[in-house]
Amino acid sequence: MDQVIQVVGALLILVAFAANQRGLMGPHERRYLWLNLLGSLILTGIALHNRDIGFLMLEGVWAIVSAWGLVQLARGKEPGASH
Question: 1, 48, 54, 63: which has the highest count of C-beta atoms within 10 A?
C-alpha cells in the first residue's frame, strides 16, 4: 500500500512538472502549487514514517515552498516577486 501512495504523491508532482514544461500550466498558478503541495505532503508523510531524513528534507521543503506560493497568491501577490 505504501508503494501505491508513493506513486500517487509522485504523480501529482510530475503531472504539474510535465504540464509546466509543455506550457499548459504556469509555476505560479494555484493548480500547479496545489498539485505540488499535495504530492509533497504525501511523500513527506511517507518519508517521516520511514525515517528517511534526506527524502524528508526534500519533500518537506518542497511542501513549504508550495504552501508559501499559495499564501502569496491568497495575498494577491505573485509567488517569487521580490516585493
Answer: 63
